[in-house]
Design a protein that fits this description.
This protein is an all-alpha fold and 61 residues long. 90% of the residues lie in helices and 0% in strands.
């Protein structure tokens, strides 16, 4: 289990690094925009991301 978790974490880092590598200016603008979003909206986006991810894992498995 730990090996699979490590692989998943490494893949997440690769995927997360694609956008700043390809378009750093746009990424910087996105970070600035995210800083202005209120906590409730951030929590909602985070929750939605977790639900979608868990749902996709359930479907795949």
């Amino acid at each position: 289990m730990w090996e699979e978790l490590g692989k998943a974490f490494c893949l997440m880092l690769v995927i997360e690094g694609i956008i700043p590598f390809l378009n750093p200016g746009r990424w910087r603008g996105l970070v600035v925009t995210m800083a202005t979003v209120n906590d409730r909206q951030l929590r909602t986006m985070g929750f939605a991301s977790m639900v979608i991810g868990a749902g996709l894992l359930y479907i795949i498995k």
